[in-house]
Sequence to fold (911 residues):
Amino acid sequence: MSKIENLKKQWEAIMSCMGCGDCGFAIRPAVGRYLVCPVKEAKGEEGFEIWFARGRMNVLKSILEGKLELSKDLAEFAYQCSECGSCTDTCHETHNPYIILNTSKWIDHVEVWHALRQDLIKAGFAPLDRHAKLIEYMNNPDMRNPYGEPKEKKFEWLNDVKGVSKTGDLAFYAGCTEPLRQKETLLNLAKIFNAAGKEFAVIEDEWCCGSISIRIGDIEAVKPNIEHNIEQIKKTGAKKVFVACAGCYRTLKKDWPEIFGQDLPFEVVNVTEVLLDLINNESLKIPEKDTEVIKVAYHDPCHLGRHMDFYEPPREVIAKIPNTEMIELRRNRNNAWCCGAGGGVKSQFPELALDIAKDRIDEAVESGIDILLTECPFCVGNLADSVKKENTNMKVLDIIDYIATKI
Amino acid sequence: MTLIQKLQNIVTEKFASDDIYVRHAYSRNVHPDLQGVPEYVVRPKDAKEISEILKVANEENIPVIPRGGGDCEWGGSIATGDVGIILDMKRMDNIMNLDEENLICTVEAGISWGKLNEYLSRFGLYTGCMGPGSGLTASIGGGISHHSVGAGGCAKYGACTNQLVSLEVVLPTGEIIETGSQANKFSKFPFNRFGNGPDLAGLFCGDNGIYGVKTKVSLQVFPKPPFANYKTFLCPRNSAEVAAQIFTEIRQKGIDVYDAMYIDEILIKLGTNTFGMYPMFEHLKRKRGIVFYVVEANSEQELEEKIKQLDNILLSNKAEELGSEIADGNFAKWHYTEGQWQTYHNCWGIIPTFENITTECFTPIKSFPKILKDIEVWDIENEENMKKIEEIAGFRPISGTGVVPLVDGNNVELTCGFTTFGCYHDGEYHEIIKDINLKLWKSFLTLVLKHGVQFYMMGSIPSRLMVEIGAYTSEYYNLMKSIKKTLDPHMILSRGKFNFWEDD
Fold:
C-alpha cells in the first residue's frame, strides 16, 4: 500500500490548483472578502507560502510526483492549519450563480488537508504529542473524552437540571466541551427549555463524537465511538438529535454517515434550529425586560458555516431577541474570519490560536458591539481567551447564554 | 559562513529559509508542470536588504529571482533549474503615501492590485488600469515588470506601466536608484516620470525582472467616475472579425470606453455546453462570440451619450444586445461590479489538471481574427500529438483564446494558448505529456510570434524562444544584452531569461 494512499485519492484536487494565490491574498470588497488565510495572517511577516494553501498545494504536487517525502517536519507545518475552509471558499468563489469556477467541482482544500493528515498518521509522523494525548484520552474506557476527565464528570451537569428524560422524540447530544468546560451553557439550555415548557432526552453513556480525532486524521480511532454513540442514541427513541457544538454538528451530520457508510437512523439539527422553532411556535417567549438596546454580532463558526453552509438560523434567532441590535461584522458568513481554535490548532499550537483570534476580536471591537455571539464552544473558548488577553470590554457569549440572560 | 547564514545575517533568521518544504512551496508559478526548486527563499523588508542580498549573490555567483504574486504563466518568478534565491517580495506590501492633491500613490512593490485598490476606494480613487487578470494576488511590481493588462480599464488607461510615475529599483549589483522626478535629489515627491534625461523607468517596464528589482512604485491614480454602464452583445457569424471591426470603430470614433472585450466562440460553446462554466449563456440559441463594453462618466448625460455612440457601433455591426442582468448574459456587469480580477480565472482548472497557459501578447486589432484562424489550422495539424495526450488524460487539449481586451492604441491583448494537461494522472507521472507539451508550446508560440505579436509576459520560455527562433532583430537583442551585461555582469538577476547567460 502506498504511503500516500489518501493524497493519491486527492490528485485531481491537488493537480487542479493553478497556483493563482488568491487563497493567500484575495481582497474583494464587492463580495465582502477581506483576506483569506488566518494562519498566514497570524504568521505576519514570517508568512512564507508554506503557511497558506497555494504553497501547501505546491508541496503536495511535489510529493505526488515523488520529489518530496512525508516527514515529521512536514507534520509541523500541516497541523498549523485550522481547516477553516476559507481558502476553498475563495478558490471557488465567483459569488454569482451565473458564472462558475469549475475548480469548485474538484478542489476542496479541507479534504486535501485531511488526506495529508491521514497519510502522516499512517506513516507514523503524526499525531503530534498533544494531539496524541487527546486521542488517547478519547479512547480511554475511563474517560471517553479528549479532556482527560473521568467519564462520570461529563454527566454532572444533569444533576442540576430538570425536564430531561432518557427517552423522547428529541434528544440532545451534549458533546464534551460544554459539559466539561462550559457547564453553565448547558444549565442555561435547560433553563430555556424549562421556560418553554419543553423536555428533551439525554443520551446515556455518550462518548466523544470523535471530531478532534477526525480533524487530526486518525479515522480508525473514531470508529468505535461512532458505533457506540449511534447505538446509545437509538436507545432514546429519538427521531431528531440536536447539538449545541459546531464541531459535533459537522461530525454527526457529515462525518458519521461518511465513516459509518450509511445514513443515520435519526435527523441531526443544530440547537439554533430548535430554538427558532420554540420561538416561532411561541413556546418560548423572551420578555422585553431591558430598556437598553444591546449591540451584538454573530461570529460564524467554520464548522457550521463554510463546512456545512449553515448561516441563517442563528441570525434568525438573534433577530427575535428583544432589545438586541444585530450588526454584521465586516467579514461574515462564507467570508467570516476563523476564531483559530479548529483543526487541532488550539490544543497543539495555543499561541497561534490566540494570534488568529486577536484578528477576529479586533474586527468585532471595531464594529462597536457589546457582545460577540456565536454557536460553538471552541469559538467561545478561544475568542474569550483572546478578549482576556487583549483586555477588552467586549463579551463573547454562546447564543444560548445570551438568551438565558433575557428570561 | 554558509550562504544561508549570510542571508539570515541580512534579513534575520525568520525571513530566510532553506527548508525543503518552504523551497518547494515556491517552486511553481501559475503552471503546475513548470518547476524550479530554489535553494533559498528570502523575504526582504526593504531595498537596503535586497541590495545586501544581491551583493552576496554576486560574491557567491548564485542567481536571484524576484517573485511578486507568483502569477506568471511561463515560469517568470521561479528558478530556471533547481538553483538560486527566491526574493519573496510579498513582505513589502505597504502603502507608503497617497498624495491626494496630485493623485499619486507610492507603494512597496509587493502589494497586490486588489489590496491597493481596496485602499484607494476609500478615497473614491482607483488605479485606472487594474493590472493583470490575476491582480487579487499579482503585485504592482510584477505588473510593471510585465506591462500587465487584463483586470479591467485597459481600453481607457492602457497597460499599467502607462500610469507609472517613478520607480525605486535595486540594480543587480546592489545600487539603489530612483527614476523620473526622483532622479533630482531636490525633488520633494514623485510627480512625473519623464524629464531629467532619458526615461530610465522605461528600462525596467516590461523587463521581466532582468534589469533590476522594483522595490517602490509611484503610480498616477484616478478618481473613479460616479456613473457607469455595461452591456454585453452576441456577435453574428464570423464573431472575431465582427469584434475586431467593432473595436476599430470605437477607436476611430474616439469613444472613451473603459473596457471593450471579446470572448471567442469556442470558449462560449465549450464553456456552456461542455464545461458548465457559463450558466448566464445557456439560454442563447446560437453560441457565438460575445462582445461587451463598460463605460464610465461624470454625469448621466455624458454616460447616455457614450452608450448611444457605442450601441450604434454594436448594432450596426449586427451584434445583438443581451439583457441587462447577469442572469441574462450580461458578462460586462459581472466583470465590472463583482468579477474584477476573476474574468480569466474561470478558464483555470476547467477540468482536473487542465493547464491553461497563454501567450499574453499585444497585437493590432485587425490582426487577431487571422491569428485565431491559424490557430485552428495548427490545432488540426497537430492532431496526432493531441490524440496521444487524450489517450492518457481522457480529454483532448484545446487551442484558442481567452477573453480578448481592447488595450491602449489600436491594439488588443491576445491571450491565446494551447491548453493541455499536466503530466501527473491518477498516480502516474507521464513524461511523454511533458515532451509533447514542450514541443507543441514551442510550435504554438512560434506560430503566434510569426504574426509579429509582442509578448509581454515572457517568463523563461517565451523569452528564450524569441532568441532561439531569431525573432529579435540582432541590433535590438545586442542592445538588450549590452545593457544586461553593464547592469548585471555576473548575470545574477533572473538568470536564464532571454538566453543571455547561455550565450556567454
About this structure: Residues 491 and 501 of chain B are 6 Å apart (CA to CA).
